[in-house]
Amino acid sequence: MPGTTTSLEAFLHLLNGQIGSGILSMPAAFGLSNKIGWWISNCVNLHPYNRVNEYICDELELPVQDYEQVAELTVAHGPPTLRSWAKTARFITSLFIVASQLGACAVYYLFIAENLKAGMPLYRTMANPKAFARPIVGVVDLVNIIIISLNFLLGLLGYLKYGDDVGASVTLSLPNEPIFQSVQLMYAFAVLMTYPIT
Predict the structure, then answer these.
(1) What is the mean pLDDT of residues 44-55?
(2) Which of 71, 104, 150, 172 is 20 to 30 A from 178, alpha carbon to alpha carbon?
(3) Helices 7-18 and 139-162: crossing angle, nearest 10°?
């Protein structure tokens, strides 16, 4: 019914709808992303970087440099008209490295937010619909911040604890002791009972 759902109720509905048992797979995802990310960066970034790094270090008789230093040295010893841009090249390279690390999170965040704002009946039932998609403090953004944070935190902690041996679900990596077996059973029961509701 239009105009009856409070912002808190909408927040709790969205949170309930988005959080699920997939969060238990985040430690395994961390392990896989580490391997996949290494392979992609090796193919796309490291080969050209290594060639430039070897060349500039051989020419200047320097030890191996990092990305920012290679960018600065390359421009500083490149065409004379560009040499004054050496420090700028170093800064831009640092900026791109940070942007690439944040990019994956931002794309995921925008994808979820835009899709929620599009075929969502909860929006139409809110007493204050403007609070639904308000930037940062709106219902959608707060839910996404919490979901992304929980996924990241559980993935990181689970991967740090179990490493590459982590199971597809972190509950499968728990020790084979009665207390942990009871946790596995309770979680399985909770998922079984609540999945049809969401």
Answers:
(1) 67
(2) 150
(3) 30
